[in-house]
Amino acid sequence: MKILELKNVHKIYNSTEVKVHAVNNVTLDFMEAEFAAIVGPSGSGKTTLLNLIGGLDMPTSGEIIINGTDLSKLKPSQLIDFRLHNIGFVFQSYNLIPVLTAKENVEFIMAMQKWSRQAREERTFELLKAVGLEERINSRPSKLSGGQQQRVAVARALASKPKFILADEPTANLDSKAAAILLEIMEKLNHEEKITFIFSTHDPRVVKMAHRVITLEDGRVVSDDVREA
């Protein structure tokens, strides 16, 4: 089932001297349960494209449609609510709330969605167990390694059962062992939860595991390689 459509998407940044086409006429579709990597050199538009898909930025022109909803047609308050219920984010810098425990960080989005306390606690334990951190449930980020913090971030992104996860360079700050563990967990959850993962990455390990690799150059899609899952 198709869950995401990009139609002739452009993002242009205007400076005093030149227009920069960060994303240039991108048309793509994504299906349920895809495990896709967006690759390309620095400055190719990977992060900009992820920000557009996630509604963190708006295209200069074109359409981004998630489950039939055109993001450009939403008011700011509607867009915030739509992101809350449909999109999970995993950032390179983890973006955990430092004063909250692992459990509280994972529960945060569900609390905003008005889940009951019991449902939040059950879902949180289920996910922290899935990422191998059930024994660190009451630890704050400062007491966790980088790899453990990123696993909490993945659990938080999955907590509200979004339509898809956007992961911007999720392994960039991890050592090889932590990155391998994280990718194995994400692939397993992709398979079990049927949630689409879209990565922006330079990491060859992510590219190797991806079932689809989209290459950008100068904001344009230059190849779209679909592999057997």
Observed structural traits:
229 residues; alpha/beta; four-stranded antiparallel beta sheet
What does this structure look like?
The protein is of the alpha/beta class. The chain has a domain of 75 residues. It has seven helices and ten strands. The strands form two sheets. The chain has a six-stranded mixed sheet with strand order 6-7-8-3-9-10, sandwiched between helices. A hairpin with a 2-residue loop joins strand 9 and strand 10. Helix 4 packs across helix 5 and helix 5 packs parallel to helix 6. The mean pLDDT is 92.
How are the secondary structure elements laid out?
Layout: E1 2-14, E2 19-31, E3 35-39, H1 46-53, E4 61-66, E5 69-70, H2 76-86, E6 87-90, H3 102-112, H4 117-130, H5 146-159, E7 164-168, H6 176-193, E8 196-200, H7 204-209, E9 212-217, E10 220-226
Parallel strand pairs: 3-8, 3-9, 6-7, 7-8
Antiparallel strand pairs: 1-2, 1-4, 4-5, 9-10
Helix pairs in contact: 3-4, 3-5, 4-5, 5-6
Based on CA atoms alone, the radius of gyration comes out at 17 Å
Structural class estimated from helices and strands: alpha/beta
Order of helices and strands: EEEHEEHEHHHEHEHEE
Main sheet record: 6 strands, mixed
Helical content band: 25-40%
Structural shape? globular
- Helix count, per DSSP? 7
Give the overall pLDDT as a whole number.
92
* Distance between the ends: 16 Å
Low-pLDDT runs of 5+ residues are none
Question: How much of the sequence is in beta strands?
Answer: 25-35%
Strand order of the largest sheet: 6-7-8-3-9-10
Instruction: Give the total of beta strands.
Output: 10
